[in-house]
Amino acid sequence: DSYVCMTLAMAAVHGCMAGYTGFTVGLVNNRTVMIPIPELAQASPRSMRPTGRTWERVVSITNQPTPDVAASPARDPDSRD
Known about the structure:
By secondary structure, the protein is an alpha+beta fold. The chain is 40% helix and 15% strand. 0% of the residues are buried.
């Protein structure tokens, strides 16, 4: 585990030092690769509603400021994420 973490961390630092932005690093076929975040998000089978309970938990746990309630659409209390 520590070796994989070190390898991924070094790849991320190398990408940043090379001037790349908007990427993450990962292992694909046992090779360290840089993956563009937009492509990663587009290919993800999961999605999260920004007004759902799961996102509210993420915001709460990470101590982010809550969005303006007047600016966001009303949330259906019976819906679940």
